[in-house]
Amino acid sequence: MILIRVGKLIDGTGSAPMEGAALLIEGDRIVAVGRQADIAFPEGAEVIDAPDATLIPGLIDAHVHLSYSGAPDPRLFRAELVDLNYALISLRAAKYAHDTLLSGFTAVRDMHAPGGTIIDLRDAVQAGYVTGPRIMACGMGLTVTGGHMDQGGFADHVSFRDFTSPCDGPDAFRKGVRTQMRRGADFIKVNPCVGSRKDPDTKPYRFEMTPAEMRAACDEAHEMGFHVGAHTSGGPPLRAAVEAGCDTIEHGHWIDNETLDLMAEKGTFLVPTLLVNKVSSAHTANDPGASWGSKRWGENSLDAMWERLSRARAHGVRIGSGSDAGFMLEHGICNLGEMECLVEGGFSPVEAISAATATNADIMGLEAGRLQPGKLADLVLVKGDPATDLAVLRERQNLSVFLGGKRIS
Ligand SMILES: [Zn+2]
Asked: Could you tell me which residue, 61 or 146, shows the higher pLDDT?
């Protein structure tokens, strides 16, 4: 057993921090939490006294791509995937996963990987071959031919095996879900709605999947007990994704009020990925090769970003924290950046921590994310007070990470 006594404890629920708190771990679980005076000292327990530290649940990133490096230039990002075998992508991802864990993130949701490689990394972590956070992996995201995750533009003599998973028609999406299930996926990612650069001022989004394809994918996934995460942009296609039963809306740049109301009613989560929106729009603005439509789309999406976040909160939609690390953002360094964006958009630091812990745990169906008896003992002991300033989480030397009751750093 381990008894941790701290100056402050933030439990992940969004409640005010508790001063002079203690938490008791037995095996991989939290067994007691409360004021130091109320927690009995068990005979033989290891005691960690940290009066200047704050205890928080292990952070969770609900949107990462461990198979990607975070190369800032999208062209480089494309080229490196062509150069690497899937085995090497997985081995590299193990390093990214370790970096992510040492940065205080004890769980991640991986939102698409060529070859489904992150399923194997998840298994390697579970087997103890490598040290990493808990990983929930979708395998390959499902997309239509030529869609967001089946992009062309490679030379015609270049061929890929299992690089993407194109599906066309409701039956093909059912098969796509079954194929990812057979591969070992934990949930399903679909691309029902994408951004459109043709007319970025009046119609910056378009349907990619048909509503019938969306329903087929969601019905099949739900039948298997999987949740469905949807890459979206906005407007009627986003609403159709919510109506079809997608459980998490990723990005959602142009989300309307009626759709937000429907999400609040159905319990659909929003993962707004603010940081990658900022970074990719800035990159496009400075890219001489980018089209007028792309630049305009980037500007408009930045304009809409904070207003959308406020509206989503006002409409009662639960908001998770997902960085999109791997896509233009480095693993381990940028995961926290999304939480800082939530604060920039009006969240208090305690609310941002709650988004990245309790809310993300609910998205993933994980028995973590809250410092409560019975939950997994995934936690971070932080030197300083993240309730005042999240920046104390930036320095790894400030963090002691516990995963399933075991001290990692
Ligand atoms: Zn993504």
From this structure: 61
CA distance 338 to 50: 28
Superfamily of domain 2-58+370-407: Urease, subunit C, domain 1 (2.30.40.10)
- Residue 324: which residues within 8 A CB-CB, separation 6 or more? 63, 64, 65, 111, 273, 275, 276
Spacing, Cα 231 to ligand 1 middle (Å) = 8
pLDDT tens for 324-338 read 999 999 999 999 999
CA of 15 to the centre of ligand 1 (A): 30
Helices (H), 335-399: 335-344, 349-354, 360-364
> What pLDDT, on a 0 to 100 scale, did the predictor assign at position 155?
81
Distance (Å) from CA 137 to ligand 1 centroid = 12
Contact call for residues 254 and 238 (beta carbons, < 8 A):
yes
Contact yes or no for 386/10 (Cβ under 8 A): yes
How far is the centre of ligand 1, averaged over its atoms, from the C-alpha of 228 (Å)? Answer: 14
Which residues of the chain form CATH 2.30.40.10? 2-58+370-407
CATH of domain 59-364: 3.20.20.140
Is the separation of the CB atoms in 378 and 26 below 8 Å? no
Tell me the C-alpha distance between 13 and 358, whole Å.
Answer: 6
Measured in Å, residue 94 CA sits from the centre of ligand 1 at 18
SS3 390: helix
Distance 324 CA to ligand 1 centre (A): 5
CA 163 / ligand 1 centre spacing (Å): 16
Where in the chain are all domains bearing CATH 3.20.20.140? Answer: 59-364
Instruction: Give residue 28 CA to ligand 1 midpoint distance, Å.
Output: 31
Q: What is the pLDDT of residues 297-334, one digit of tens each?
A: 999 999 999 999 999 999 999 999 999 999 999 999 99
Q: DSSP states of 85-122 as a string?
A: -HHHHHHHHHHHHHHHHHTTEEEEEE---GGGHHHHHH
Give me the pLDDT at residue 281, please.
94
